[in-house]
């Protein structure tokens, strides 16, 4: 079951740089892990913004929330989730 | 080169039903054609709305505009285009 | 799997009154049918507006879109879908 | 009398982590208390966000405000309240 | 129990003038009726707009919706309802 | 001459608690003073928010601005002022 | 007492051209009349839009609403009124 | 003196096709004329929309408004004008 | 050449009070200076807000930007500029 | 391939002045470098705001994102990218 997810990242200025770097490294590792599990089939950078557009493939809403909230950057992201269905004109 | 495209369709109430049906049939045929040409790799329905989220793969901005404006529903759609880049955490 | 759905109805002024009444009657019948099937556990009127707030309980995004687009008022509604998950503080 | 309530939580970055944890624990206890009193019949997590959608069942506007402002996270939440009425098509 | 209600009126251009006048006259009569019943204690015109700001005093959400939807202009109004509570600094 | 005023309060997290409490106490005293002078005939709490909806009765725009900017919470409020006129259907 | 008023004009496409022209001519005459009475000291065109920014000088909110609603284009305008006060740095 | 101008075109569905085509042809001729006069140095299509982003080079605000309102599509466009200044980092 | 300018001031809470006061005093002096030069013919306070509505009379966009960015409060203001033209109904 | 880019700069108040100055100087140097490479053909200041409107000329979305994210002010900017195509009426 597919979901369209947009994530906008805003790390607060008060977070020390080394702490921010550690979170970003952990984020990257976790993102790769979820992709390798087949749950995050598409991940694109939005040009000019610290943001991504993603497609998630999950069994349920609960699983999707568990995945998203497991991301180390979760507290610093604005996330917008849109459920997708099969399009009648898709081949 | 990938672009994220969201299309919201709003057919005016004044358009006769048979004319609307003809446009929708032509839209479906054209959508399949563009997909088969490899230019429209993803096409999803947004749940609960007469709208889609799509990914286009084109050579240039001009090509993308030519494809979108060739859609029979183009005059009745609000289209939002977002350029995508490779994400550093994508596998 | 639960989804929060808000529907705002706007019937165009150009629709003849008897046709509008027929659609509303069909809408009511279909809404009762979906509720009786256990797929639409909650349906509330928003005070002061021709709108409702609803909870749907479905197996998949595709099923939800099929249900929503089967509503006779679907062409005249603006629908906003929000996926819900279990809340850790819910009893 | 039912009210639709959406709560978005934003804990400021300047709040020490242990203080934030204490407030969250108190929030959970108070949320359970209100639910057990039958005043908060539904509480759902919005997927991908530190937010909930809730239904409150109260005697009056004053009671609703008293309940909401008794929540330990109240100073850190943006709350949107929508009064609900019985829907003519609800079974 | 008090509610803040804002009503913006937009009569469609396609409605014949005499029909619009009849609806406005009926609206005025119904507005006076509800005020005389003590349910609509304040009704003000917003300067420069075909809109009003009102205070309703009702027993329940259902009563408020019944009153608002009984207004002849109801199909042509955008209505926004805000529940009010007693303010701790009010004398 | 009546004005509709909505005030949303947002006290910054960096303000020490005792200082905030002192400002709130001064705010309450000033609010009572203005009400007793007959200039602030209505003051209601918006349910679920640190906000109020008010009606002011003043001689001029200058007097209204003087009153609002005399409030101790003025630097921490977003204030929206709407001029009101007599409504032709008001009794 | 000064008010800042912005008026955006949108004449419906269904209004016959000669009727629209008559309304515009009447609007111009009425605008000149109000200006000559000293009630409308400033009237500017917003570049690129069928809109104006104006300053009105009136005795009361009721007078302002009476003037604005006397404009022949009033039913076709979106009007936004902002009360002005003397600025402490104005010379 | 440069101005950034964005024009969004929305031709009403009620306008007969041949009339719309005549207006579009006249628009094109006028656009070329203004460009050749050196007043409209840049004109770009926004991908996926019936809209353009333009740069105008004029002597005054009045001249800009005269040019824009001389466009045959002016009644059907939403135009947003932004004054530009020299950027200190521009070469 | 006239421009409509709206300035909203938001001084950060972290700025020490004496520094803020010095900036405000310098702002007032500079505002008077520009007014006396005939470049800022109108300056009004927006009732209830730390904001002003102004009319500037300048030779060019560059001059306007130079004036606005010379204001000591410039770094703390959100400024919105609208070019004005002569209105055909202005007397 | 042309892109319309708008950049709004917001340097946090917590950044020390000398650090902010160093970033601005580096930004200017990098902006000149990209312009000299022919990738940034137009760069204008928006009057009254710490913002610019720009045109970029690049080979691909990836190149555009690389250029934008190489700007020293990138972490402090809100950037909006719009793909442009050739306009049929452009000469």
UniProtKB/TrEMBL annotation, chains A, B, C, D, E, F, G, H, I, J:
Segments forming a coiled coil: none
Keyword presence, Isomerase: yes
EC number: 5.3.3.4
Pfam families, alphabetized: MIase
EC supergroup of this enzyme: isomerase
Ranges where the Muconolactone isomerase domain occurs: 1-89
InterPro entries, sorted: Dimeric_a/b-barrel (IPR011008), MLI_dom (IPR026029), Muconolactone_d_Isoase (IPR003464)
Keywords on record: Aromatic hydrocarbons catabolism, Isomerase
Reactions it catalyzes: (S)-muconolactone = (4,5-dihydro-5-oxofuran-2-yl)-acetate
Pathway annotation from the record: Aromatic compound metabolism; beta-ketoadipate pathway; 5-oxo-4,5-dihydro-2-furylacetate from catechol: step 3/3
SUPFAM superfamilies: Dimeric alpha+beta barrel (SSF54909)
Recorded family membership: Belongs to the muconolactone Delta-isomerase family.
Quaternary context: Homodecamer.
NCBIfam families assigned to the protein according to its UniProt record, in alphabetical order: muco_delta
Name of the protein in question: Muconolactone Delta-isomerase
Organism: Cupriavidus malaysiensis
């Amino acid at each position: 079951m597919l979901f369209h997810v947009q994530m906008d990242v805003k790390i607060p200025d008060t977070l020390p740089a080394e702490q921010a770097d550690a979170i970003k490294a952990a984020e990257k590792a976790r993102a790769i892990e979820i992709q390798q599990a087949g749950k995050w089939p598409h991940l694109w950078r939005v040009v000019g913004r610290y943001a991504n557009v993603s497609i998630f493939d999950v069994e349920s809403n609960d699983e999707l929330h568990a995945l998203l909230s497991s991301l180390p950057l979760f507290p610093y992201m604005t996330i917008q989730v849109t459920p997708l269905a099969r399009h009648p004109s898709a081949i």
